[in-house]
Specification:
Length: about 90
């Protein structure tokens, strides 16, 4: 296997916990926190992050596939945009 293939495999494996973390974090939050910060509902974020986690795990093309990249972006949007605001409204540290 060539070096770039090892690098892409490492990226693929490293991104799986990102999607799982986004889903687990969304699952553990109060439903009213999402609407309080003017974001989509908890159910919608669970659907988005859950589908993203499944895509990150099951898409065999990994970083080559547009679907995989969409799953990674959805997870990162939750982590970077929604998570801090939900944490702030609830006063939680994680």
């Amino acid at each position: 296997m060539a070096l770039y293939q090892w690098i892409l495999l490492a990226i693929w494996i490293a991104c799986i916990p990102v999607g799982v973390f986004a889903f687990v974090h969304a699952a553990l939050q109060r439903p009213d926190a999402f609407t309080a910060v003017d974001k989509l509902s908890k159910a919608k974020w669970l659907l988005i992050t859950g589908a993203a986690a499944v895509l990150l795990i099951l898409d065999q093309r990994g970083p080559y596939g547009i679907i995989w990249i969409a799953g990674l972006i959805a997870s990162l949007v939750y982590i970077v945009d929604v998570r801090p605001k939900v944490r702030e409204i609830q006063g939680r540290s994680w």
